[in-house]
Amino acid sequence: MVYGEATGMVQQGQEVDGLITEWHRVFTLGGLVASLPWLINPLIHHPLLKRFLMPSKRQDWGSGHIMLSHEKLFKRRLQKPSLARQGNIFDKFLKTKDPNGDRLGLQAAEYECFVFTVGAQDTTAAFMSAFVDHILRNPDVKSRLLEEVDHFNRVGKISFPVPSYEETMKMPYFMACCQETLRLSPSVSMVLPRYVSQGGMYMGTIWVPNHTEISANPFVLHRDKHIFGQDADIFNPDRWLGDANQVRTMEKYFFAFGYGSRKCIGRHLAVFEAQKFFVQASQSSRLILTLRLTIRSVQFFRDFDVQYRSREQPCRVENWGINVYFEQYVQLKRR
Question: Is the pLDDT of residue 48 over 90?
Answer without folding.
Answer: no
